[in-house]
Specification:
single chain, 465 residues, mainly alpha, 16 helices
């Protein structure tokens, strides 16, 4: 990316108003979601470290499914943003229909895998070590939690199909409101079902799963019903189901661009699950400590994470309108904003890090590990912020095979092998291995900078369809 001094990286008030109009609802929704996840974590942890650890392990497994949905829908979403940028509503409808069929296929595949091999996958994370936890009890809680969570996968998929399309066409407020309402439903039923208030049975982690399932249905119904009742704000909704077929040429184009994203998210999420599984060989205390640190760091990472959504929408629409120089300028400004904000937030969280684990009813061993993991995670958050912005920039221009190599191929070829080698061939403590694992992302930042500077991502992918 060429620059002309500092001004090339700083936008005017109108730019930041537009950026915040798009990113703020995503930040707010994700912030509330992660805050409730923190409360959920604390409530489950209050009934036992084993239940909290079982829930954490299942969360790693479901994370793979959630990101497969995200990646699969994102492939079509690239086309949605650019079609909407040139006011082609039938193009938007067709990308929605593609998402519909792909979502159903992924739902069926994911449910089948978890039903057949869920218990075996949970067992991969259960190892002796440290002074915390009972492996058999943790496995039982994890299995029960997973089976209940499967009932919420279908409404999650449908909600994502609608919400991603709304966001890609600039309607970010309604998905945010639906998410907030669902989060409140989840929080209320967590309180009732985990501890057994108001005459309900005390269900522990199974109650937490049931509360999540109920909230999934609430969020799905709100988004679907609102979309179909507001055709003026959602103009592509008219005639959406008049047919479900997708033009063959568009299907081919989305598949070519979208398949790498689906593969990428599947491999990246499973790769991260594999990295966590490597950490788990140090014992259940490490799994519990990492769960606490991850939950807290996610809460404070919403700003730079939302910048990825902003890049997808703003840059995607500018590329679709052939405003290439504006797209380049937007990337520079969003990237700087993302990095600076992550540095400021990280500094505050690191100072307060020792206070957060005290919210949990767990052992001192777990609390000590959680503080260490949290400080390291926040210290490297500017690195992740840059890599995240670079990834979404490359993706917005349809360079999906490059993003595949940039994201998941890097993880499987470099980061995961290094972590496994350090565990197998050295006697380094878990904290040292965690530091090295995260600093490897500096290589990713260098690659991202080179790819952005070349400018091959500046491309209108819908013009020739």
């Amino acid at each position: 990316m060429n620059s002309r001094g500092l001004n090339a990286y700083i936008g005017d008030k109108a730019f930041y108003r537009r950026l915040m109009r798009i990113a703020m609802p995503v930040m707010l929704q994700n912030g509330i979601t992660n805050f409730v996840s923190l409360l959920d974590n604390i409530m489950v942890g209050a009934v036992g470290t084993e239940q909290m650890t079982g829930v954490s392990i299942v969360g790693q497994l479901l994370f793979v499914f959630y990101l497969c949905i995200f990646g699969g829908l994102s492939g079509a979403g690239i086309f949605t943003s650019q079609y909407y940028g040139r006011s082609d509503l039938e193009g938007v409808r067709n990308t929605f229909r593609f998402k519909f069929w792909l979502g159903l296929i992924l739902f069926a595949a994911g449910t089948g895998i978890y039903l057949l091999w869920g218990d075996n996958l949970i067992a991969l994370y259960l190892h002796d070590g440290g002074e915390t936890g009972d492996i058999a009890v943790t496995a039982d809680y994890g299995s029960k939690y997973l089976k209940m969570m499967l009932y919420g996968l279908l409404p999650f998929v449908i909600q994502q199909i609608y919400s991603t399309t709304l966001r890609e066409t600039g309607e970010t407020f309604m998905p945010m409101m639906a998410g907030i309402i669902a989060i409140l439903v989840n929080l209320v039923f967590n309180y009732i079902l985990i501890f057994g208030h108001f005459g309900a049975p005390a269900m522990g982690c199974v109650g937490a799963a049931l509360a999540t399932v109920l909230s999934r249905y609430v969020e799905c119904l709100i988004v679907v019903i609102w979309s179909h009742r507001h055709p003026k704000r959602v103009p592509y909704i008219r005639g959406l189901y008049s047919r479900l077929s997708v033009p063959l040429n568009l299907t081919r184009q989305i598949s070519v661009k979208g398949l790498p994203l689906l593969i990428n998210e599947a491999l990246w999420s499973s790769g991260m699950a594999a990295v966590t599984q490597c950490y788990s060989t140090f014992g259940l205390a490490v799994v519990a400590g990492l769960n606490i640190a991850t939950t807290i760091s996610n809460l404070f990472s919403v700003i730079w994470m939302a910048m990825g959504t902003a890049v997808s929408i703003i840059v995607g629409q500018q590329l679709g309108a052939n405003a290439f120089e504006e797209a380049k300028a937007s990337v520079r400004k969003i990237m700087l904003f993302s990095i600076v904000s992550s540095v400021a937030v990280a500094a505050v969280v690191i100072l307060l890090a020792p206070l957060f684990p005290e919210l949990y009813n767990t052992t001192e061993e777990v609390k000590r590990l959680a503080v260490g993991f949290l400080c390291i995670s926040m210290a490297v958050s500017p690195v992740h912020a840059f890599a995240n912005a670079a990834y979404f920039t490359l993706r917005s221009g349809g360079k999906t095979w490059i993003t595949f190599a940039f994201d998941s191929l890097y993880l499987w070829v470099l980061r995961l092998p290094v972590v496994r080698a350090l565990i197998a061939f050295t006697s380094l403590p878990i904290m040292a291995i965690f530091v090295i694992s995260n600093l490897i992302d500096l290589v990713k930042c260098v690659l991202g900078y080179i790819l952005l500077k070349r400018g091959t991502w500046v491309h209108n992918i819908v013009e020739s369809i």
